[in-house]
Amino acid sequence: MESFAFAPAYELPVWPFTPPPELGSAQVVRHPVVIVGAGPSGLTLACDLAQRGVRAVLLDEDDTVGVRGASSRGICYAQKSLEIFERLGIYARIAAKGITWSFGRTFSGDEEVYNFNLQATSVSKQPPFVNLQQFYIEWFLVDRILELGVTDLRWKSRVTRVEPLADGVRIDIETPAGSYTIEADHLIDATGANSPIRTQLGVESHASRSTDRWCISDVRFEKPLPTERWTWVDAPFNEGRGVWQHLMADGVWRIDYQMPEDCDPAEISRPEVAGARLREQLGPDVAFEFVWIGPYGYRDHLLERFRHGRVCFIGDAAHVVSPFGARGGNTGIQDAANLGWKLALVAQGQAGDALLDSYDAERRPAAQENLTVTSRSARFLAPRSPAEHTLRRAVVALAKRHTFARALVNTGRMSVANDYPAAPQLPEGARTVQNLPLQWADGRETTLMQLLAEGTQCLGLWFAPTRAQAQAACDATAGLPLRLLAVGGDSGLPTLQADETLARHLGIDPNVGGFVLVRPDAYRAALLAQATPDTITAAVRTALALTASSS
User: Fold this and answer.
1) Which distant-in-sequence residues (6+ apart) come within 8 Å of 77 by Cβ?
2) Which of 23, 283, 318, 493 stands 20 to 30 A from 192 (CA)?
């Protein structure tokens, strides 16, 4: 039998189990927020809350990150997620360790039919994508959470039962030292696609019937490949099925091979079989060593509601989509960023409980949009009928000769931050604001994420208000979580330099001016062409679900 070299396994960190104070006590302690699951979405939420000074308990069954055996799992982190990580203080580590890229190519057979450069429309300090093995993201988040010192991280803690209460949730937990019970004002389920909490509560996931199957090969090559995202629609070296090719950290290449739905996961993952696929793709003399090989299968699902009373579902517990376009893990990270500031303001008594309903009103449509886009891509790459095969052949043939048809090759629809539809807290809907480089009036540099990292408050960016307007607005909004900043002018407010790129990105005519309300998650919540103290106050109160009687 042919032998295959495996690179040394990754050395994953391990954190100790510490018996919690509730163990052995008859008293049931109540916590503001309990998060179950230390994957990317759960850790992002815990880190987000910690940076806002909100104490949370984070429970996880394991005592390490990633998956034992060190598979790469998620690898593509999109600009919006990178901006979130910048605000949380770990982006520099991610950029230093990962592979930055923005250019991708799509092939049919041996011929390139489509390419894209995501940097072309970006004004952010963060790049369109960084490739990095998922366990590194989780590792950096744990380090940051421990550094902040606010979160109670509890390893080797398995949730065995969840009981919804009128004003919270009761949670039974099993540990190596025994079992105990706690309560939470809010429970966040981040336990992934096979959520036991969702199953116990009887929440229907509406999973698709078919399973899409792939085999992942994490490989090191003696001779490096181009640092670009390459995708094959119908790779001749994979029996006409899809293939993805990415570079990750540590010189490891991630190559995903689409497999038949009825394949044997163990058989397709044998080193001899995986090695034959690599040689078919790259030639019989290619020199390589495997880091990890493993099968991967998924079924789409989407909950009807992401909030059930005092329980919220985030990440794969709420939705699973095809991995096409890197819309899975990034969506979970962005779920956490959407929910974190809302939980913080509600816990601190600065926003109404209805603000938590806006989590579902915003993130479920985002997940639905991602499901639609990725399902279309999945059907394009894995046709399920003769008619779909015919359509794909026609589109690919057209794309080789005509520019208009290249956009129909769906594999280039990479993850972007979703817009939010109109809702009670967003009368005009919302769109993301990129992490623009900015300058204070005195020339000091800053960015939008640096401004949003200071406390939990909305930003009010007002273009050249008068001193009288600024003072009146400060008086009117006193006590609200709002930081008023001027853009240009001489208003007496902290002032950023006037910038045409900033104005146009926010939707402002730089010649006319106006006021933009930016939420703590870097979404534009309101655009006021003619701002007054009353309209600014009303916009903030609407965005935070504060009624007339709210404090």
Assistant:
1) 85, 94, 98, 129, 130, 131, 132, 137, 326, 329, 330, 333
2) 23
- Residue 433 has what pLDDT? 96
| pTM assigned to the model | 0.94
Q: In angstroms, rounded to a whole number, what is the distance separating the alpha carbons of residues 252 and 75?
A: 11
Tokens of 262: 């009825």
- As given in the structure block, the two tokens for residue 517 are 């309300």
Burial class (CB in 10 A: 0-12, 13-18, 19+), 463: buried
Name 444's Cβ contacts closer than 8 Å, sequence gap at least 6: none
pLDDT in tens, 376-392: 766 676 666 778 778 77
Rounded distance between C-alpha atoms, residue 156 and residue 487, angstroms: 50
More confident residue, 394 or 44: 44
Are 338 and 520 a contacting pair, CB within 8 Å? no
Tens of pLDDT, residue by residue over 460-514, are 999 999 999 999 999 999 999 999 999 999 999 999 999 889 999 999 988 888 9
Burial 234-246 (b: 16+ CB within 10 A, else e): bbebbeebbbbbb
Cα→Cα distances 56→16, 46, 187, 213, 218, Å: 18, 7, 10, 37, 35
* CB contact set of 407 (below 8 Å; sequence gap of 6+): 114
Report yes or no: 401 and 368 within 8 Å, Cβ to Cβ: no
Beta bridge partners of 290: 6, 219
Please state, in angstroms and rounded to a whole number, the distance separating the CA atoms of residues 217 and 45. Answer: 30
Determine the distance from the C-alpha atom of residue 50 to the mean position of all C-alpha atoms in its chain, rounded to a whole number. 18
What local confidence, expressed as pLDDT, does residue 62 receive? 95
Contacts with 249 (C-beta within 8 Å, 6 or more apart), sequence order: 97, 98, 99, 131, 132, 133, 136
d(CA 533, CA 528): 11
For 452, other C-beta atoms within 10 Å of its C-beta total 25
Distance CA 410, CA 406 (A): 9
Tokens of 238: 């994979």
Do the strands 29-36 and 178-189 form a parallel or antiparallel pair, or are they unpaired? parallel
Across 398-402, average pLDDT: 75
